[in-house]
Design brief:
Length: 334
């Protein structure tokens, strides 16, 4: 028959705590199948929920047939942490790095569920990788999980999960983990520094533009976009150098000479200051360029742009006055 009123031709059954956001979803192409399969799906979801709460304690040895000594030695000596989870029996650490990284004794790990070592906020992701691996869907990207070390410190472990058959009736999931705590901390510090730098640069009245060696714009502040009339062109971080030059061609008094100057500045190996560009709206901009170098090679160029229109106009008036003594005297009287 048809599904009960208000029930769709499919199910989404919650498994585990709500904060894990895990659901068993089944769609029925034939709504009539709900009457026959709906209760079974709900029972499967309930069983999965019980399994998630069932304590999965450490195992003394691998489930199923034991591997050859050479295979076991290879597993123990790998730099990755290798943990095998048998849903029906428990878990076992196969590599010595489980002890060297986390501080636990691999042969006598803590007598707790493996999930108890995972940070509460990361348990949903850990269970999701387990469920996906059991279903044969192996994610291409690793997952970061915070794991509690023996001393209580949380380490960030980059994890990949893979499933395989233990025997004809059982499936186990192997977790391969690498300690990326320091790398992730360095990345976060770099992101924080980049954010602070971006805030500082955006607060400057001068324009700042950084172009990588491959021509990508990696930094451009609002002042630079305004001074170079780039707002309408959509030039921003990620745009390329040729697109910027194309936008400037429309607003420079002498586009050919101006663009050639910019190309020479970007290609230069020494810092240059005070080069000027005249714009069709009457403004004069002054440009400085500093080459950026890495450890062994040049990695880009930084431009600083400022509006010197008033200064140039004043200098021109003074130059005219110097050539005309009568005008100079009148200027002095005024």
């Amino acid at each position: 028959g048809m599904p009960p009123p208000g029930r769709p031709a499919g199910l989404a059954c919650q498994s585990g705590p709500l904060e894990w956001r895990l659901e068993l979803r089944v769609a029925f192409t034939d709504p009539g199948r709900y009457a026959r399969l709906g209760p079974a799906v709900e029972q499967i979801a309930a069983a999965a929920d019980r399994v998630l709460h069932y304590p999965c304690h450490p195992l003394a040895q691998l489930p199923g047939p034991q591997p050859p000594p050479m295979y076991a030695a290879l597993c123990r000596s790998t730099t990755e942490m290798v943990v095998l989870v048998d849903p029906a029996a428990g878990w076992i650490a196969l590599s010595d790095s489980f002890g060297t990284v986390l501080g636990y004794d691999r042969t006598a790990p803590p007598p707790v569920a493996l999930l108890a070592l995972v940070h509460p906020d990361d348990r949903g992701a850990a269970v999701a990788t387990f469920v996906a691996a059991c279903a044969g869907r192996h994610p291409t990207d690793p997952v970061d999980l915070r794991i509690r070390a023996a001393g209580g410190r949380w380490l960030i472990i980059e994890v990949v999960a893979r499933s395989f058959a233990v025997d004809a009736t059982a499936v186990a999931v192997a977790y391969y983990g690498t300690d990326v705590t320091m790398a992730r901390m360095a990345l976060r510090r770099a992101e924080l520094d980049r954010s602070r730098l971006s805030t500082l640069v955006d607060s400057l009245s001068d324009g700042v533009l950084v172009v990588a060696a491959d021509g990508r714009i990696v930094l451009v502040n609002d002042a630079c976009r305004r001074l170079l009339c780039l707002e309408s062109s959509g030039t921003t971080v990620g745009s390329d150098w040729p697109a910027l030059l194309s936008a400037l061609r429309k607003v420079l008094v002498d586009a050919s000479a101006g663009l050639e100057l910019l190309r020479l500045l970007r290609a230069g190996d020494v810092a240059v200051a005070g080069r000027r560009l005249e714009f069709t709206d009457g403004r004069v901009l002054e440009i400085d360029m500093v080459p950026l170098r890495g450890a062994t090679e040049r990695i880009g160029a930084m431009f600083q742009v400022r509006d010197v229109t008033a200064r140039v106009a004043a200098a021109r008036v003074l130059a005219v006055d110097a050539q005309d003594p009568v005008a100079a005297a009148a200027s002095a009287l005024n």
